[in-house]
Description:
This protein has 118 residues and is mostly beta strands. It is 0% helix and 53% strand. The strands form 2 sheets. Strands 2, 4, 5, 6, 9, 10 and 11 form a 7-stranded mixed β-sheet that branches. Strands 1-3-8-7 form a 4-stranded antiparallel β-sheet, with no helix packed on it. A hairpin with a 5-residue loop joins strand 5 and strand 6 (57-59).
Amino acid sequence: QVQLVESGGGLVQAGGSLRLSCAASGTIFSINVMGWYRQAPGKQRELVATITRGGTTNYADSVKGRFTISRYNAQNTVYLQMNSLKPEDTAVYYCNAGQGSYPYMNYWGKGTLVTVSS
């Protein structure tokens, strides 16, 4: 019954910006880490950024200085501000949320497509 829904994807030119949002559509208990992953065509899904409930962030080296992850804990929402976008950022971006206690469930959204043109 739990679902994460992403929004904000689209087509943007290199150097532009997009802001992705993810909101839980159902009740999720004891969420600690939320984050964003992405998967480009023919590639493995990779971590983009994560943020703990306390605000500690972690970024992939490829997006450091360009992307900013943030969250609104009261709504179990997470955001990804993407600036200075590059064509290699093109991918389906997936929202993720993980429980900080048993049974340590991991939830995924269905993804939102980001396309960066040159």
